[in-house]
Specification:
This protein has 573 residues and is an alpha/beta fold. It contains 15 helices and 26 strands. InterPro entries: GH, GH13_cat_dom, Glyco_hydro_13_lg-like_dom, Ig-like_fold, Ig_E-set, O16G_dom_2. This is Alpha-glycosidase. Pfam families: Alpha-amylase (PF00128), Alpha-amylase_N (PF02903).
Length: 573
């Protein structure tokens, strides 16, 4: 047995309270190396003669590991447990809190060999708001969704043309009135969560270079109009998520302009990470100009980085964060460049917004493993790019085999607690990426097959505006074309609508149920979801028709018991 591969951590994604009387534990071993894992467990204060045993189930296969899981009872809200591991070579060890022991009988009778859960505190549990598990998001880039009020159009506004290839400085006049006018459309499509890219006053069309967080950009409307959008969305059963940029300000903000003017004597000098004065003209290291005078987002001179360790900056940002919750009743924040802001601030942020709204949803933009942010006191979830981009690597780019995909996704699921996985925001494209139809080389069946696969996963799925219209677009800014309203109710629209409807019809299982990923002998990818019902989904990413006998609850390219390439079929029991 490969002892070096045995792995478990307490009070982590390997050991977490699911309710005051139950603890979910996971264990990891080398692939195909372990025959079974038995957990010995009992209350912390009971003699070990009262210990119970339960065999763990293999819950997934990763790249180099087998993953095991089981839920343990803790009737007195406390627990101690240890692992008896039996290898396929016939050897046995106890993997305990202090050591790995080959003397199994002695170890299971030694209190020091047991991991401890001192008390199952409900307040320390990682929780996902219930409503998130029943939500399908729709991402709106306000400048390109719909122009509902031409009176607030910026100068040099371009004609609304969905086939344009927008430049970085182009404006098309999209606004909040356009969103308000189309809320019934979004209700008809079936989505029940609206994720807005920034709406605050800023210098650009994308609004990520904020000038004033307490003002709606006049090109989009005003606060009264935004309040109406929120109220009307809520009346239709839709949640509203705003996008906040707390990592940096725009260089046209009052605070930064004061630094430009007054240098080290500015009262805002300590609001930023400044290395040298004067701060202008900016030295860009990408152009070989030397070290920059101040820290920024990337090396973007228009986005000076905020010093979130400064109490004044904290107060400023927390006022903004709570203002839109208290006075406009938003339901969620998406946090831009969230990984570059300190943990100390995010803990304060979490407390500030959840004190107002306990079921508030917080999503961080993090493109890599995000465990440090996902322990229940910072973010609910993150934009799940490490998970979803691997879906693209198999379905669209053929970089991964089906087996490689399922094993990598299984490893990703093991990075987080079950509740955290349920709170992830899953998207295949966004304002920062090429559109899925373009990545799929214009193959609509392939794009919708991958989208359906995303919808079968743990987490809250998100559709980028225009996906339902079959819109294409390369990387930013081409992915931000004006919405193509001519395709409403068309064949692609109907298929996306049906997918959303299916997901929400079975949201109890999709939102809360367990997941296992397999590859069948014929090469189909199988997604098993277990919860209120049993859901089995099969995806054919091969180049041949494959027979699969199942009840057809929802499908694409499935006929007479055969699943064609780019097809899927889902059965529900």
């Amino acid at each position: 047995m490969q002892l070096a591969a045995l792995k478990h951590r307490t009070e982590s994604e390997d050991s977490f309270v699911v309710d005051p009387k139950h603890v979910r534990v996971r264990f990891h071993s080398a692939k195909n190396d372990v025959e079974k894992v038995i957990v010995h467990y009992c209350d912390n204060y009971l003699p070990l003669k009262y210990a119970k045993t339960i065999e763990m189930k293999k819950i997934g296969e990763g790249q180099v590991e087998d993953h095991w899981g089981v839920t343990l009872e803790a009737p007195f809200h406390r627990l101690k447990y240890t692992f008896e591991v039996i290898g396929k070579d016939g050897t046995s060890v106890v993997y305990g809190d202090r050591a790995i022991s080959s003397d199994v009988e002695a170890a299971v009778n030694e209190d020091g060999a047991y991991f401890k859960i001192p008390y199952c505190h409900e307040i320390d549990m990682v929780k996902t708001p219930e409503w998130v598990k029943h939500t399908v998001w729709y991402q709106i880039f306000p400048e390109r969704f719909a122009n509902g009020d031409k009176s607030n159009d910026p100068k040099n506004v371009k004609t609304w043309n969905p086939s344009d290839h927008p430049g970085r400085e182009d404006y098309y006049g999209g606004d909040l009135q356009g969103v308000l006018d189309h809320l019934d459309y979004l209700k008809k499509l079936g989505v029940n969560g609206l994720y807005f890219c920034p709406i605050f006053k800023a210098s650009s069309n994308h609004k990520y270079d904020t000038i004033d967080y307490l003002q709606v950009d006049p090109e989009f409307g005003d606060k009264d109009l935004f309040a109406k959008v929120v109220n009307e969305a809520h009346a239709r059963g839709m949640k509203v998520m705003l996008d906040a940029v707390f990592n940096h300000l725009g260089d046209q903000s009052m605070q930064w302009q004061d630094v430009v003017k007054n240098g080290p004597s500015s009262r805002f000098a300590n609001w930023f990470h400044i290395n040298e004065y004067p701060v202008e003209p900016y030295r860009d290291p990408l152009k070989g100009e030397g070290d920059p005078q101040y820290d920024t987002f990337a090396f973007e001179k228009h986005m000076p980085k905020l010093n979130t360790a400064n109490p004044e900056v904290q107060d400023f940002l927390l006022e903004i964060a709570t203002y839109w919750v208290k006075y406009f009743d938003i339901d969620a924040w998406r946090l831009d460049v969230a990984n570059e802001v300190d943990h100390h601030f995010w803990k304060k942020f979490h407390k500030a917004v959840t004190d107002i709204k306990p079921d508030f949803y917080i999503v961080g933009e993090i493109w890599h493993s995000a465990r440090p942010w996902l322990n229940g006191d910072e973010f609910t979830g993150v934009m799940n790019y490490p998970y979803t981009l691997q879906i693209e690597d198999h379905f669209f780019k053929n970089k991964l085999t089906a087996m490689q995909l399922t094993r990598r996704l299984t490893d990703q699921l093991m990075e987080y607690r079950d509740e955290t996985n349920a709170g992830m925001m899953n998207m295949l494209d966004s304002h920062d990426t090429a559109r899925i139809l373009t990545v799929a080389n214009g193959d609509q069946d392939l794009a919708l097959q991958a989208l359906a696969f995303e919808f079968m996963q743990k987490g809250s799925p998100c559709i980028y505006y225009g996906t339902e219209m079959g819109m294409s677009g390369g990387n930013d800014p081409d992915c931000r074309k004006p919405m193509d309203w001519s395709k409403e109710d068309g064949p692609v629209w109907q298929r996306v609508h049906n997918l959303i409807e299916f997901r929400l019809k079975h949201d109890e299982t999709f939102g809360k149920g367990r997941i296992q990923l397999h590859v069948t002998e014929d090469g189909l990818i199988e997604v098993d979801r277990t919860g209120k019902e049993q859901i089995h989904a099969y995806f054919n990413t091969t180049k041949k028709n494959i027979k699969v006998a199942c009840e057809n609850a929802f499908s694409q390219n499935y006929e007479n018991g055969e699943l064609a390439p780019k097809g899927f079929v889902v059965e529900v029991h």
